[in-house]
TrEMBL record:
Family: Belongs to the ABC-4 integral membrane protein family.
Alphabetized Pfam families for the sequence: FtsX, MacB_PCD
Annotated compartments: Cell membrane
Membrane topology: Multi-pass membrane protein
Residues annotated as domain ABC3 transporter permease C-terminal: 246-371, 705-818
Residues that span the membrane, as ranges: 242-267, 294-316, 336-361, 390-408, 420-444, 473-493, 704-723, 744-768, 788-811
Record carries keyword Membrane: yes
Protein's name in the database: ABC transporter permease
GO CC term (a single one): plasma membrane
């Protein structure tokens, strides 16, 4: 039957056009995304930056600490503590040794990611003086030549101070960082932690001196000490997390479209399959023919899609780079390496499997066609759905509603996990697509009801055409349903979740005013002290640190906020579920309920400065994943300089009763002017905080929605082209009955509008199920919260989908109208 399959493909290539396009696009997506993932796991060596001129670098050793499992900026306990003076002395005995420190230091108005170093390490990173001299005192600095000139007096923001320094010299800028260089003594005062050592003695002697106390880096390994290494890892982690989600959603959509178009192709060829049965073909031979067609189509489409994916991977990478997900140097280069060949081979096999698997149901249906059906003159279908499809649709519907109900009532935190929730949104949409043939009849009657008394035959013909060919109507409405349903569900879920987080944050903050960073990564302690001196003002500025729990041979880290207990109660409304914030003292802490610690229990905690503390759990509060922190007493403020950068990410301000509000706020604004902090109301803080917190989630979900919409837009166009191009007989009947070309075109356009409307209505029904589950989950997590619908974007998706459906109808009809009616009949027969 392979020869017969090849001949039918040649004769009925239009019937398989939609399948070919869907497969090509699906395989291209799988290939491109697979290339991105394998490339991210096997990156080329990046050049050494800060220590390119150093032979040997010694840095803290962190056995068992995989930075890929932790957030950017979180140090291992060893890295937070830094190298010891004793180890420095041992390394110094092998030869000249230079201490390196890296800390927050930003020129006023300079880049937010500016960093401070002691001047002696500058030479190892390629810095050379272009003017002036090295810092000769603690009040002098060296800066890049594009930011100041020698002799200038500049303000430098650090974690502890806002101080003026004199520029003693300038260096040429480098591409990998913006640095400010201090004297050795000043750098040690600002950052007591020793991050690394540059050893100029023999490497083997250095290794012997260090032993197992630290890690010795030489050659390419020196890049591990570069700041860009951690930044690249963070962005690549985002890529590796996002791409599989996008691939699963896009792949599922592709499989559904392929299966639908194969089934549609069999429906279109019902009479000719029956003719084969009439001349002696057995059901087994017919099924084999359809499977062979799928194999031929799948092989050709998979090959084309693989090549397209190879060259389209960089386009996808560029899109992720523009969204801030992947690093700007991330490239996919065609080669014969396994990282290229493996995903391409996998994508090709996926294309074949999707093609053959998608045709399986169509092959069974083709084998069941009886010879007597060759006598049929019209493809009338009273039910539009087979028992198997009805069962699958019922299971999908029950599964979708059940899954959504479980999210709403049993596991509301699922909506906070984009990886799981994005995929779950597809279930009701796909269930609606499977059951579409059952809904075509009622929806066609409902949507055409306003035109039941319309003059002329067009409305009646459109209605009856949809009712007598429900499978065709459902197949052509499916891409519209998928496009609108998935886009609507994804975008509404993203916006609603963001609004709910805003509401939750607003309810949790009870202070009237706040300080937030102003083009800086945080607020220094000196600025907080200035505001605290304003009469009638109380300020709470939590310092971000890290606390560690020893779990056998590894450490678990969690965020900690160092804050005065009284200030915490005055500015934050934590939902305490056990214990009381009144019991907080210098030897206790408040923890999130997610940590499963009992009030009154004593926990052994390793702090970032290397000290071990025993803290009593005074209170347990309710928190969401990602917002769970330990609130620690003020005596741990110094650990923030070891764990992070020693800056407050925000500060909360309240005014004493009877304080002149206008005078106090004016004094606060004056105190923070030019300090890298901005004064704002609580509502303004909530808006800025929520925009930052939900950025990555929005990027994940919106980028997934963009890829789905692009795929589905093309599916709409090619499915309508395929469906309309195969209806030459219908067009001929209309022409021979006396219809003018304009009337014929009007009929087909009206039918495509009805098909689009049916798809949109089904999409709205599926989205309603998704949003009902989302509302229930958000209600449990945040209380009463609105469902936010991006009406403008959704309306745009609906309009574009409808226009593509009309375009997919007008193009083949317009081409066919140029032929005479008898030619159309002959072509069809």
């Amino acid at each position: 039957m392979i020869r017969v399959a090849f001949q039918t493909l040649r004769a009925r290539w239009v019937s398989f056009l939609g399948t070919v396009v869907a497969l090509v696009l699906g395989v291209a997506q799988v290939a491109a995304m697979g290339l991105l993932v394998t490339t991210a796991f096997d990156l080329p060596d990046r050049p050494v930056e800060r220590f390119a001129g150093a032979g040997t670098v010694v840095r803290p050793k962190s056995d068992g600490w995989n930075p890929a499992h932790h957030d950017l900026g979180v140090r291992s306990p060893e890295a937070a503590r830094g190298l010891s003076p004793e180890l420095r002395d041992r390394v110094a005995a092998t030869g000249e040794t230079v201490v390196d420190r890296a800390f927050y230091a930003q020129l006023r108005g300079g880049p937010e990611d500016q960093v401070g170093h002691p001047w002696p390490v500058a030479r190892f990173g390629g810095y050379r003086l272009t003017d002036g001299a090295a810092p000769a005192s603690d009040g002098q600095i060296v800066v890049p030549s594009d930011q100041a000139r020698t002799g200038d007096e500049v303000t430098v923001l650090t974690a502890s101070t806002v101080r003026k320094y004199t520029v003693s010299g300038t260096v040429a800028p480098v591409g990998y960082e913006d640095a400010v260089f201090f004297s050795e003594a000043e750098a040690a005062r600002l950052s007591p932690r020793m991050d690394s050592l540059v050893a100029l003695g023999p490497a083997e002697a250095v290794r012997d001196a260090v032993g197992e106390r630290a890690e010795v880096l030489t050659g390419q390994d020196r890049h591990k000490a570069d700041a860009s290494e951690a930044e690249d890892r963070e962005t690549l982690d985002n890529t590796i997390t996002l791409v599989p989600v996008m691939a699963s959603v896009a792949g599922t959509t592709a499989i559904f479209v392929v299966a639908s178009t194969f089934a549609f192709a069999v429906v279109q060829r019902r009479r000719e399959v029956a003719l084969l049965r009439a001349v002696g073909a057995t059901p087994k031979q017919v099924r084999k023919m359809v499977r062979n067609e799928a194999l031929l189509v799948g092989g050709a489409a998979a090959a084309v899609g693989t090549v397209l994916g190879l060259f389209g991977a960089q386009l996808l990478a560029d899109m992720l780079i523009s969204m801030g997900v992947s690093p700007d140097w991330f490239t996919v280069t065609p080669s014969l390496h396994w990282t290229v060949l493996a995903p391409l081979a996998a994508a090709f096999l996926v294309g074949l499997l999707v093609s053959v698997g998608g045709a399986a149901a169509a092959a069974r249906r083709a084998g069941s066609i009886q010879p007597v059906e060759a006598l049929r003159e019209a493809a009338v279908d009273d039910t539009g759905v087979t028992p198997g499809r009805a069962l699958l649709g019922a299971v999908a519907l029950l599964g979708g509603v059940g899954w959504t109900a479980w999210i709403a009532t049993g596991s509301p935190v699922t909506v906070l996990s984009p990886t799981v929730y994005v995929v779950s949104l597809m279930v009701p949409v796909l269930a609606a697509a499977v059951l579409a043939p059952l809904a075509v009849g009622p929806l066609a009657r409902l949507l055409m009801w306003p035109w039941r008394r319309a003059n002329g035959p067009t409305a009646m013909l459109v209605r009856q055409s949809a009712l007598t060919a429900r499978r065709r109507t459902a197949a052509t409405a499916a891409p519209v349903l998928l496009t609108v349903g998935l886009a609507f569900s994804l975008l509404a879920a993203t916006d609603s979740l963001g609004a709910a987080r805003d509401s939750g944050l607003q309810n949790r903050i009870v202070s009237d005013y706040a300080l937030a960073p102003d083009d800086t990564p945080g607020i220094s302690t000196e600025v907080v002290d200035r505001v605290a001196e304003v009469p009638g003002v109380k300020i709470a500025a939590p310092l971000l640190t890290t606390v560690y729990w020893k779990d056998e041979d590894r450490y678990d880290e969690n965020d900690g906020l160092v804050v005065d207990p009284e200030a915490l109660k005055r500015t934050m409304d934590l939902k305490v579920v056990e214990g009381s914030l009144d019991d907080l003292d210098e030897n206790s802490m408040a923890v999130a309920d997610l940590w499963h610690m009992d009030v009154g229990s004593t926990q052994t905690v390793l702090m970032a400065d290397g000290s071990t503390q025993k803290l009593k759990v005074a209170a347990v509060y309710e928190a969401l994943r990602g917002e769970d922190v330990a609130y620690l007493p003020p005596r741990f403020a110094d650990t923030a300089l070891f764990a992070r950068d020693g800056l407050s990410r925000r500060a909360y301000i309240t005014l004493d009763e009877g304080t002149d509000r206008q005078a106090a706020t004016a004094a606060i604004r004056e105190a923070v002017e030019g300090s890298g902090a901005t004064f704002m109301t609580r509502d303004e803080l909530v808006a800025s905080e929520s925009a930052y917190a939900r950025h990555l989630n929005e990027v994940r979900q919106r980028s997934t929605a963009v890829i789905i919409m692009l795929f589905c837009f093309i599916a709409i166009l090619n499915t309508l082209l395929m469906a309309t191009a195969d209806r030459r007989r219908d067009l001929a009947v209309l022409r021979t009955a006396g219809a003018t070309p304009r009337q014929v075109l009007r009929f087909f356009v009206a039918e495509s509008l009805l098909v689009s409307a049916i798809g949109v209505v089904l999409a709205l029904a599926a989205t309603a199920v998704n949003l009902a589950g989302l509302w229930g989950a958000l209600f449990q997590l945040f209380g009463t919260t609105p469902i936010v619908v991006p009406y403008a974007v959704v309306t745009g998706v609906v309009v574009v989908s409808t226009l593509l459906a009309v375009l997919g109808t007008v193009l083949p009809v317009g081409a066919a109208l140029r032929a005479r009616a008898v030619q159309l009949i002959g072509a069809r027969e």
